Amino acid sequence: MKNLTLKDIAAALDISVTTVSKALQNYPDVSEKTKERVKAYAEKVNFKPNSFAAYLRTHESKTVGIVIPRLNHFFFSSILRGIISEAEKHEYMTFILCSDESYELEKTQINRLLNKNVDGIFLSIADKTHNLSHIQNIMNKGTNLVIFDKYSKLTTCSSIVIDDQKASYTAVEHLIKKGKKRIAHFRGPLLPQNSIDRFLGYRKALEDHGIEYNKDLVFICDEISNREGYDHMQTILDKKLDVDAVFAVADLPAIGAIKCLIENNIKIPEEISVMGFSNWSISSLITPTLSTIDQPGELMGRKAFQVFLEERDAKKRKEPLVFKKYIIETTLIERKST
């Protein structure tokens, strides 16, 4: 049996092809009675719209792409849930790709999505991305772009982020109010803006409370892993560095630090407190439970898709796009590690 077309439905119902098309797309200038009649017939004959023909007609593919830096990451899976739930409400199909924190792979994945003629791309920039020309190319091609979490100040598009400086300041100030004064920082890589901002928030909290900044208490976590947190904590103990608290750029290094402290019979939080960032599900399951900053990933994902829709509609109305940075609020969660 041949694939039915809009023309076949129009002939069967004795209405125009345009009316069939509009009815299937819920256009307001088609009566509800006609919409119901068209949709009922389309379901009866198992009509499947030709997506390529629809793209040629509307210049919309009803697909979007998401590029995340890591797959095994609770925070990014939360963002995916938010984007996908909104996409499904608006009948968009999603392509999910991973850059694995690689600049080269990020470029490849973006090109793949552009070749698929997606209507929009959602991107969290890889740690190793040092050149943004491939990101600007998205905008040059007229494809909507929304960046979330890891961003660059040099990109020209809307972004969904948290105030990393404010959040990390809150985390460190919490430790200071607990009486901690020799606070180590397990920071992220040197390049991503959120890693930079969390370090700046850490340093400002120390300075505002009269605690001298000590570069020897800052350790870089290139992979942001529990192994790095464990190793850095062991280095602190081996060198007998005078530390009474640790603030980690994310929960995984903090969890590694806790494991090391437990194995070395160091009391948490009496001797050394530990503060994480992101509020992964495991943070409330370990012993002691981990104090952290809650970063609402699902809310960020839903907001990202809503911004995409707003910018899509503005383009249809031929209005100039006004790019904005949307800041999502965070919350400090105090648990037993502090």
- Broad CATH class of the largest domain: Alpha Beta
The CATH level-2 architecture of the largest domain is identified as: 3-Layer(aba) Sandwich
Please name the fourth-level CATH homologous superfamily of the largest domain: Response regulator
Helix count? 12
The CATH topology of the largest domain is what? Rossmann fold
Overall 3D shape: elongated
Ranges where pLDDT stays below 50 over 5 or more residues in a row are none
Whole-number average pLDDT?
Answer: 92
The amount of helix comes to 40-55%
Task: Quickly give the structural class.
Answer: alpha/beta
Q: Number of domains in the coordinates?
A: 3
Strand content: 15-25%
Q: Any idea what the radius of gyration is?
A: 25 Å
Number of strands: 12
Strand order of the largest sheet: 2-1-3-4-5-11
| Cα separation of the termini | 68 Å
Order of helices and strands: HHHHEHEHEHEEHEHEHEHEEHEE
List keywords for this structure.
six-stranded parallel beta sheet, Rossmann fold, 338 residues, 12 helices, alpha/beta, four-stranded parallel beta sheet, 44% helix, 3 domains
Topology:
Elements: H1 6-13, H2 17-24, H3 32-44, H4 51-58, E1 63-68, H5 74-89, E2 93-98, H6 103-115, E3 120-123, H7 133-140, E4 144-148, E5 158-162, H8 164-177, E6 183-187, H9 193-208, E7 218-220, H10 226-238, E8 245-248, H11 251-263, E9 273-275, E10 292-294, H12 297-316, E11 325-328, E12 331-333
Parallel strand pairs: 1-2, 1-3, 3-4, 4-5, 5-11, 6-7, 6-8, 8-9
Antiparallel strand pairs: 10-12
Helix pairs in contact: 1-2, 2-3, 5-12, 8-9, 10-11
